[in-house]
């Protein structure tokens, strides 16, 4: 690690002490995308055993699943058993659905109801929501449908003690945050769960985003990017300034949770196991971000 980043990390970690305020307990978990990336339909269910086994020793506080894994009939029993066996809690799940598509509304809400119930059943308390990419600017009518669907999902979340948050890729925050800002104008009560790597790729400054939305942010994904625009093997490699991001989160009183989400290009050949990469990334978060 560069000396500048190390010193910034120390400053970030001592920020709460210097201000006289205790630092909130912020769990740091890992999303299971790196295991699902090469599975058919990006479904991590077939490799759930590997996910828990390899992530358990990494020092993380929990694992974030993907909705595909929880839609199998025996998924609750399987996840509960693995979580208990490896003493690794489930933080929640991510979920992507075309909420803007009125013709898909019934299917989306039915899937969401099953998913949210199962998130609760496996001990999860968070749902990261991607509202769906239309591959173009959504119309006002589509944005209205998206908001209506999201509100209905939020009601189900409330009934099951699950906190929903809006996750972002590039499409939600591109073009002046067109999709995100239109969603928030219609559903101002929804929490945010930004992915700082995708923000960077969309040319949105993560630090400015943190200060703009403040305590709306209840969750966040951590990934990095190399100078050549590709994803690195661990969070500690790359050009995104996570020391400054950590400082901004401390300054805004962030008290949610964080999830390391590593992703590799399709042609990339890992030099270490995913478990080792998460272990190194978890140590980096503690050292540089103060969490």
Describe the structure in your own words.
The chain has 13 helices and 8 strands. The model is unreliable at about 1-20 (pLDDT under 50). It has a single domain, classed as Divalent-metal-dependent TIM barrel enzymes (TIM Barrel). Helix content is about 45%, strand content about 10%. It has helices at about 5-15, 15-20, 35, 50-55, 65-70, 75-85, 105-120, 140-160, 175-185, 195-200, 205-215, 240-250, 275-290; strands spanning about 30, 65, 90-95, 125-130, 165, 190-195, 220, 255-260. The chain has about 290 residues and is an alpha/beta fold.
CATH uppermost class? Alpha Beta
* Average predicted local confidence, pLDDT: 93
CATH-defined topology: TIM Barrel
Order of helices and strands: HHEHHEHHEHEHEHEHHEHEH
Q: What class would the helix/strand composition place it in? A: alpha/beta
Any idea what the CATH architecture is? Alpha-Beta Barrel
Taken from the alpha-carbon principal axes, the silhouette is globular
Measured distance between first and last alpha carbons? 17 Å
Low-confidence runs: 1-22
Q: Could you give the count of β-strands?
A: 8
Count the domains. Answer: 1
Main sheet strand line-up: 6-5-4-3-2-1-8-7
Biggest sheet details:
8 strands, parallel
Strand content: 5-15%
